[in-house]
Amino acid sequence: MRTVPRFKASARRPELGAPAASLLRRLVAGESLLVAGAVLAAAVLSSLAPPSKALASVGGAKAHVGPGAVNKVVDENGYRLAIRVSPNRAAVPNSFQVAISRGGKPVRKADVTVDFAMLDMEMGQQAYHLSETAPGTYGHAAPALVMVGHWGLSFQITPPGEKPFTVLLVDKANG
Fold first, then answer.
1. Is 167 helix (H, G, I), strand (E, B) or coil?
2. Which of 1-5, 103-107, 129-133, 140-144 has the lowest mean pLDDT?
3. I need a labelling partner for 94 at 20 to 30 A (CA). Which of 10, 79, 113, 150 fits?
4. CA 137, 138, 141 angle in degrees (round to 5)?
5. H or E segment at 36?
6. Is 50 a residue whose pLDDT tops 90?
7. Strand partners, 35
8. CA-wise closest residue to 140 among 101, 112, 119
9. How much of the chain is helix, strand and coil, in % rounded to 5?
10. What is the Cβ-side half-sphere exposure of residue 13, based on CA atoms within 13 angstroms?
């Protein structure tokens, strides 16, 4: 807005040409920096991995647990679940256990499955069936937490003759 009138005026007064040219150089240099910054920002943002699809379910988590051994009690649909994960470390065998009770009595013969979903990056999910190891207590041991990071542990529970329900925990596993 200022350079064009100055360049036109410099035809009559040559001393106005140098400041107008200097201003134009500064404006072009500033715009070049803005364009370079925008290109750099686009390059950085496009190189980032997209978030895990499993991350969308985190809002419904009953609890955030870990790092370290987990011993968490949650209530869902009139049931009380005592969930234990030990030692809760990545890339080692872990013991996963859930004790289910209703009205203070153990719930026997339920169908219990736990799904493991990595929340920090996209990777396949793992699912394990938990066997009844004691009245109302279901467990399994496996190296399910295959890497350090945040995991979604989704317990699908179908009590005998009842509607199934799901309890989600977000776990942070360290190495």
1. strand
2. 1-5
3. 79
4. 130
5. helix 17-47
6. no
7. none
8. 112
9. 30, 40, 30
10. 7
Residue type at 134 in one-letter notation: A
Q: Which of 73, 81, 67, 88 is nearest to 110 (CA)?
A: 81
Residues written for the chain: 175
* Distance from C-alpha of 127 to C-alpha of 117, rounded to nearest angstrom: 9
Asked if residues 143 and 94 have their Cβ atoms less than 8 Å apart, the reply is: yes
* CA–CA distance, 175 with 171 (Å, rounded to integer): 13
Any alpha helices (H) in 67-170, and if so which ranges?
Answer: none
CA dihedral for 56, 70, 135, 128, sign (positive or negative)? positive
- The predicted model scores a pTM of 0.70
Return d(Cα 51, Cα 118) in angstroms, integer. Answer: 10
Is residue 167 within 8 A of residue 76, CB to CB? The reply is yes
Q: How far apart are CA 102 and CA 84, in angstroms?
A: 18
What letter represents residue 56's amino acid? Answer: A
Write out the two tokens for 13: 């007064």
Share of the chain above pLDDT 70, in %: 85
Phi, psi of 171 (to 5 degrees): -115, 140
